[in-house]
Design goal:
The complex is a heterodimer.
Chain A lengths: L1 H9 L5 E9 L2 E6 L3 E6 L13 E7 L2 E7 H4 L12 E7 L2 E7 L1 E9 L3 E2 L13 E7 L2 E6 L1 H4 L2 H4 L1 H12 L1
Parallel strand pairs in A: 2-11, 5-7
Antiparallel strand pairs in A: 1-2, 1-8, 3-6, 4-5, 6-7, 9-10, 10-11
Chain B lengths: L2 H28 L4 H20 L3 H19 L6 H23 L8 H18 L5 H15 L13 E7 L12 H11 E8 L20 E7 L3 H7 L8 E6 L2 H5 L35 H23 L1 H5 L3 H24 L1 E3 L1 H17 L4 E6 L4 E3 H22 L4 H6 L6 E10 L2 E8 L6 H10 L11 H6 L22 H10 L3 E7 L3 E9 L4 E9 L2 E6 L3 E5 L6 E4 L3 E6 L2 E7 H4 L13 E7 L2 E7 L1 E9 L13 E6 L5 E5 L1 H4 L1
Helix pairs in contact in B: 1-2, 1-4, 1-13, 2-3, 3-4, 3-5, 4-5, 10-12, 13-14, 14-18
Classes of the chains: A alpha+beta, B alpha+beta.
C-alpha cells in the first residue's frame, strides 16, 4: 500500500492517477498503469495440467515463461470467441509477471481525485470485492481493479486455489 | 567508490583467501617439506590482516595477527609442523570465518572458542620459542620486517620493462658537497645515462627562507631516486666513486616473485594472491592468464539472451517459406547463422564451467576432520579434479558430497583397523572421490573399500519402517535406494558425524534439485560406491519430446531407460490394479500420460501408442504416450513461483516455434 501513497505524493500537484482501461464484455475496467508492463496481441498458450480453470496456460515472453490468466474465467463470465482485439496485458504482481487475457484494451486515462466514488455493492458482473473503487470520467463509469486483491499472496499460488476449487467441487 | 561497496569487495576477497587457507593447510600436511605452501599461506593471512585492519575490523585483525606470527615462525624455522599444530591451524581458519561474520554483521563480543584458539596459537609460539636453544628475538623480528617490504610492493615495479631492475638510490650529501665540486645536477645526469629515473623524492624540509639562504651550502639532506636500469648495482656505485661512502646508499628493489622463484618454480602465477601483479620481467617466461570477475547474474542474462537467439535461429531454420525459396545464398546464410549460433551457445556455456577441483579440495578437510573424530585412519584418493562442471552446480555440490564422504568414513569403513585386518584389507581405509564424464552426464563417485551394504539388514529395516512391502521382490539397487529415504538410518549408534537419520535423503533431494540422480553399488565386505549423475549444466537438458492428446511434453532422457511399441502378448491387466507390461520378464506398471495429467479420460489400446520406460527412486515404470516426436536439447525455464508446486511438471522449455513445452518431473509422477 505504501507504493500507492508515494505515487499520490508524486502527483500531488495534479492529483491524478493513470489507468489503462480495458473491456470485459460491455463493462469498462481500469488497471493502475504502474502495474502494467506491456500489452501484446493474443498468442498461443500451453495449457498446464492440474491447475485452476482460469489459468489459460503458460506462454513464452521473449524467452521467459509466464503464466496467463483468462480474466473472463477468473470472474466467472461466459467464455467468448477470441478476435483480433483480444489482448494479453502483462502485469507485474509481487515481482512476478502474469499475463491477463482481456477482450480489448482501450486507452490510458487520467483520473482526478474528485472523480472517484465508492465501489458498488451489487449490480456489477464481477465480484465486487475485486473492485477497489469507481471512477466517472466523461460520463463513463470505470471500475478500478485491484489486482493485488484479486491475486493475493495466497491466491497467487494457483495450486492452493486449485486445491480449494477441488474441495468445493467435492 | 563508496564504503559499502569497498566493504563488499573486502568480504569477497577475504572469503576467497579463507577458502584457500583450509586447502593450503591440508596440502601442507601432505607435503610438510614444501615451505612454499607456508609462504603462500602466510601471504594470504598477511593480506587478510592488512585489509581487516584498514576496515577497522580489530577483532579479526588481532586474531589474524597472531595466526600470522605462528605461520611466520614455521615458515622461517626448520621446526616440524606436527599434526597438533595443523589441528590448531585448521581451527584458527574456522575462527577466522566466524570472526569475519561477527565483524561483517557487527555482532558484539567474540565468537565461540575465539579466546581459546588464540591462546592455543600463542601457546604454540611460546612453547617453540622457549624450546629454542637461543631464543633470538631479533631473528624473529627481522624476517617480518623484510616481508613487510616485500608486501608493500613498490608500485614502480610495474613500470619496469623487459630486463630492467629497479634500483633505489639514497643520497645523503653533506652540506659542503658543492665545495667539493659536485652538485645534484651532475649526479642526476650521470644516473640518467645508466637508465631511466622513474621517481625522485627530495627532502626540502631543511631549506630555509630565500632571504637567509647560503647558496654555497647544501640544504637537502636526503634524496631518494628510483632508477629503472639493466645495469648492475656495482655500475651505479661507480658514479659515486668520489663521494664519501656514508653519503649514498644503493640497493636493488627486489620483486617478490624473484625471491620465490628458486623455491617454487612450478607454481602458476595465476594463483598469486590478488592485487599483486606479476612482475613484467617474467613475461617472456610465462604469459600469465588474465581473469575478469563477472557477476553470475550477468552471465545468466547473457545465457538467457543466447537462449532466445537459438530459438529465433531455429525459427528461421524451420520456416517453410524460407526453405521453399530454394535460394542457395539464403540457405547458406542460414546454415552459417546456425553454426555461429551454436558456437556462441557453446562458448557462453563454457563460461559457466569451472573445474571441480575447488570442491574436491574442500573434501580433503572433511575427510581429515571426520576420520579424526571417529578415530579411523583414512586415505583419500582424488581423481578427475579437472572435470568441468556448471558453476552453480559446483556451489551446490559441496553439501551433498560432504554428507556422502562422512557417510563413507563413518559407516562405510570398518570400525577398527583390526576389523579390516580380519577381512584381509590394509589397516587404513580407502575413500576415493572421482569425477568423470559418462554419456553426456557428469558422474561423481564417492567410494570406500569398507563393509559394503548389507542388503538383508536394509530390507528388514525398510519393511519395519513401512518403506518396503514384505511380499514384494526387490532388486539390489531398489533395496539400496531405501537408505536414501527420509528417516532411514541403519547405524546402530548415533555418532556426531552422521547417523541422525537426516543424512542421505537430504543428499537425494539436493541432487534431484540439480536434475541429477544417485546410484548405489555395493558388495558386502568389499565396499560401496555412491554415484551422482548430473547433467552437464543446469540450464540445458537432453529431452525426449512426446505427444499426448495433441500436446507436447518433454521427458528428460536421463530418466529414460528405453522406449518401445508394445505388442498385445506382453500386455496384462490386473483386476483393479491397472495395466502392466511384461518387459523381458519384468512386470512394469503402465501410466497413461493423458489420464495422469487429467488431459482426458480416453483409454486407447496400448498397442496404438508408445511406452516409454523410465526409472525413478521407486523403480521402473512405463509411460504411455500417443507418439514420440524426437530427441532434443532444451533450455530449462522455470514456470515461476506461482506454478512451482506442481509436482508433475518440473519446468518448461521454449521450442523452435516459440511455443512452450512442459517438462515432466519423473520423480513426481509415480
Amino acid at each position: 500500500m505504501s507504493d500507492v501513497s508515494i505515487t499520490e505524493e508524486k502527483l500531488s500537484l495534479a492529483k491524478v492517477d493513470r489507468f489503462l482501461t480495458l473491456y470485459l464484455e460491455d463493462e469498462q475496467y481500469g488497471l493502475d498503469i504502474n502495474m502494467v508492463k506491456e500489452i501484446i496481441a493474443l498468442m498461443k498458450t500451453t495449457p498446464v495440467p492440474k491447475t485452476p480453470h482460469f489459468l489459460e496456460g503458460v506462454m513464452n515472453l521473449r524467452g521467459n515463461i509466464i503464466p496467463v490468466v483468462n480474466m473472463r474465467s477468473k470472474f466467472n463470465m461466459e467464455t467468448k470467441e477470441t478476435d483480433d482485439r483480444t489482448a494479453i496485458v502483462i502485469v507485474g504482481i509481487q515481482g512476478s509477471d502474469i499475463g491477463f487475457i482481456v477482450d480489448r484494451v482501450e486507452e490510458v486515462i487520467a483520473v482526478e481525485e474528485n472523480q472517484y466514488s465508492e465501489p458498488p455493492q451489487f449490480g456489477t458482473k464481477i465480484d465486487s470485492e475485486f473492485v477497489s473503487k469507481m471512477a466517472r470520467v466523461d460520463n463513463n463509469v470505470i471500475m478500478i481493479l485491484d489486482l493485488n486483491k484479486v491475486f493475493s499472496e495466497k491466491e497467487l499460488n494457483f495450486l492452493d486455489s486449485f486445491e480449494e476449487e477441488e474441495e468445493t467441487l467435492a | 567508490m563508496d564504503k559499502a561497496k569497498l566493504k563488499q569487495i573486502f568480504i569477497e576477497e577475504a572469503n576467497e583467501i579463507i577458502e584457500t587457507l583450509d586447502i593450503e593447510i591440508i596440502n601442507f600436511e601432505e607435503n610438510p617439506n614444501d615451505k612454499g605452501i607456508l609462504d603462500q599461506l602466510f601471504r594470504g593471512v598477511h593480506t587478510l590482516k592488512g585489509s581487516a585492519n584498514s576496515f577497522g575490523f580489530g577483532r579479526l585483525g588481532e586474531f589474524v595477527h597472531h595466526f600470522e606470527d605462528a605461520l611466520d615462525y614455521f615458515r622461517t624455522s626448520d621446526d616440524e609442523v606436527t599434526s597438533e599444530v595443523i589441528d590448531v591451524f585448521l581451527e584458527a581458519v574456522d575462527i577466522i570465518k566466524a570472526v569475519l561474520e561477527y565483524e561483517v554483521e557487527e555482532y558484539e563480543g567474540n565468537p565461540e572458542n575465539y579466546e581459546r584458539c588464540l591462546h592455543d596459537i600463542q601457546k604454540i609460539l611460546s612453547a617453540k620459542k622457549d624450546g629454542l636453544p637461543e631464543p633470538d628475538l631479533s631473528a624473529q623480528e627481522a624476517p617480518t620486517g623484510d616481508i613487510a617490504n616485500e608486501f608493500d610492493e613498490n608500485p614502480l615495479l610495474s613500470k619496469l620493462e623487459n630486463e630492467e631492475k629497479l634500483i633505489e638510490i639514497t643520497l645523503k650529501f653533506d652540506e659542503d658537497i658543492y665545495f667539493r665540486g659536485y652538485d645534484h645536477g651532475t649526479f642526476f645526469k650521470l644516473i640518467s645515462e645508466e637508465g631511466r629515473i622513474l621517481e625522485s623524492t627530495w627532502d626540502m624540509s631543511k631549506v630555509p627562507d630565500l632571504s637567509t639562504i647560503d647558496i654555497q651550502k647544501c640544504y637537502i639532506p636526503k634524496i631518494t631516486i628510483f632508477l629503472a636500469t639493466t645495469k648492475e648495482v656495482a655500475n651505479i656505485e661507480e658514479i659515486f666513486e668520489f663521494v664519501e661512502a656514508d653519503e649514498f646508499d644503493i640497493k636493488l628493489v627486489e620483486t617478490p616473485a624473484k625471491k620465490e622463484a628458486p623455491q617454487e618454480e612450478e607454481e602458476p602465477l595465476t594463483q598469486a594472491p590478488k592485487g599483486k601483479t606479476p612482475p613484467k620481467n617474467q613475461k617472456k617466461k610465462d604469459e600469465p592468464k588474465s581473469f575478469v570477475k563477472i557477476d553470475t547474474t550477468k552471465l545468466d542474462e547473457l545465457f538467457d539472451s543466447v537462449g532466445e537467439l537459438v530459438i529465433a535461429q531455429n525459427f528461421l531454420g524451420e520456416n517453410r517459406k524460407i526453405s521453399d525459396l530454394e535460394d542457395e545464398g539464403v540457405n547458406k546464410t542460414i546454415e552459417t547463422l546456425s553454426k555461429i549460433t551454436r558456437l556462441i551457445q557453446n562458448r557462453v556455456m563454457s563460461l559457466r564451467m569451472v573445474p571441480i577441483k575447488d570442491t574436491f579440495d574442500k573434501m580433503k578437510r572433511v575427510v581429515r576432520d571426520s576420520s579424526k573424530k571417529v578415530k579411523k585412519e583414512i586415505i583419500l584418493d582424488v581423481q578427475g579434479e579437472d572435470t568441468e562442471i556448471d558453476k552453480t552446480m559446483v556451489d551446490k555440490l559441496a553439501d551433498p558430497l560432504i554428507h556422502l564422504i562422512r557417510n563413507s568414513v563413518d559407516h562405510g569403513i570398518e570400525a577398527t583397523a583390526e576389523d579390516r585386518k580380519v577381512a584381509g584389507k590394509s589397516p587404513a581405509g580407502n575413500v576415493s572421490l572421482r569425477a568423470f564424464h559418462k554419456g553426456g552426464n557428469i558422474a561423481i563417485e564417492v567410494s570406500d573399500d569398507g563393509r559394503g551394504i548389507n542388503r538383508d539388514v536394509i530390507l528388514k529395516k525398510a519393511i519395519e519402517r513401512d518403506i518396503a512391502s514384505p511380499t514384494e521382490e526387490y532388486t539390489d539397487s531398489q533395496v539400496y535406494s531405501f537408505i536414501l529415504q527420509a528417516g532411514f538410518s541403519t547405524a546402530e549408534k548415533i555418532s556426531d558425524i552422521s547417523g541422525r537419520g537426516v543424512g542421505l535423503d537430504v543428499v537425494k533431494n539436493f541432487i534431484e534439485g540439480l536434475h541429477g540422480k544417485i546410484e548405489i553399488e555395493s558388495e558386502l565386505g568389499k565396499g560401496t560406491t555412491f554415484r551422482i549423475l548430473l547433467p552437464l549444466t543446469l540450464a540445458i537438458i537432453d529431452g525426449m519430446l512426446v505427444r499426448s492428446c495433441g500436446d507436447t511434453y518433454i521427458i528428460p532422457t536421463l530418466s529414460i531407460v528405453e522406449s518401445f511399441r508394445p505388442t498385445e502378448d506382453i500386455l496384462h491387466t490386473a483386476q483393479g490394479k491397472g495395466e502392466y507390461v511384461n518387459l523381458r520378464d519384468e512386470l512394469l506398471p503402465i501410466v497413461r500420460l493423458n489420464q495422469l495429467l487429467g488431459l482426458s479420460e480416453d483409454a486407447p489400446p496400448i498397442t496404438e501408442g508408445t511406452l516409454v520406460c523410465v526409472e525413478n527412486e521407486n523403480g521402473r515404470f512405463t509411460i504411455f504416450v500417443d507418439e514420440l516426436v524426437g530427441r532434443q536439447q532444451v533450455v530449462i525455464k522455470s514456470l515461476g513461483k506461482a506454478l512451482a508446486k506442481l509436482k508433475e511438471i518440473s519446468g518448461g522449455a521454449v521450442m523452435g516455434n516459440g511455443e512452450v513445452a512442459l517438462i515432466l518431473n519423473i520423480d513426481g509422477i509415480f
